[in-house]
Design brief:
- The protein has helices at residues 20-29, 46-56, 87-113, 118-127, 134-143, 150-158, 173-182, 199-211, 226-239, 272-276, and strands at residues 4-6, 34-37, 59-70, 73-80, 186-189, 216-220, 242-245, 261-262.
- By secondary structure, the chain is of the alpha/beta class.
- The protein has 2 domains: 4-92 and 170-276, TIM Barrel (Alpha-Beta Barrel); 97-158, DNA polymerase, domain 1, CATH 1.10.150.
- Helix 3 (87-113) runs antiparallel to helix 4 (118-127).
- It is globular, with a radius of gyration of 19 Å.
- The chain starts with a strand and ends in an 18-residue tail after the last helix.
- Bound molecules: manganese (II) ion (MN) (3 copies).
Length: 294
Amino acid sequence: MYERIDLHTHSTCSDGALSPAELVALAATRQVQLLALTDHDTLAGCAGAALACAEYRIEFLYASELTSLWRGREIHIVGLRLDAAAPALKAFLAGVLTQRVARLRAIGTRLTRCGLDGERLVDAVLELPGTPTRLHLARLLVAQGHATDPDDAFNRWLGQGQRAAVAAEWPGIEAAVAVIRAAGGLAVLAHPHRYKLSAGGLRELCQGFRDAGGEGIEVSLPGMGPADAGRAAALARRYGLAGSCGSDFHVPGLPWRPLGRFAKLPEGIVPVTERLAMKPDGSAALEARTPLAS
Ligand code: MN
Ligand code: MN
Ligand code: MN
């Protein structure tokens, strides 16, 4: 059994602050035994992270956090143990990237209308490595004095209903789950407590997610209070979803959001690691575990 795992992390290949190799080095100091790199809509950092994990004898899963839509709401779905070479997944990620760039350009046009140099700002975001996100743009708005911090940038400019807001056209949850399965992966509903859904809404989301082929749900994350964790565990039991856990790590130095979570889950929840241990064809998916150097 695993003591400490982390199945939800970000690097500079999306909106995280550490390179994949730096992230893995930090995971090693935290005694993480199984790590998934889940950058937004990309697997660009996974090859590098896998190499670094091999050095530290950390088991590694190719993974990504896919952005999707359900009833007009942005829902994140983590795909674990993905085949990066799967043509369906490559085409899907390329389409999402095209959509992201178009949205950022439209936001840039709106910022220009508000008297900012929107085109230049967006060009600068698109030159950064990794998946371009609104958070990158928010950080630039802060750096140029147009907001006090990224949250302020969303409240003033980028957030829903604000001056430069542009709605996104993400794939539906069914499409996201389908492509994860097509790439041999296991679909996990990310951070259910963050969607501002009613209890009934969350149940409908979980039902739709499971009907689409989703297999897991995050039940242990920093920032989940006991009530949130209890609700997530109840959803896992009700819909037969395996429990996953991670930190949703983005930046170092937040003591309340360290990398690595204890792998033990509440009673009656099947750990997602158990389902990951077998591929759809029945063969073992994770390599035989090597004892950790102490
Ligand atoms: Mn992020
Ligand atoms: Mn997310
Ligand atoms: Mn995340």
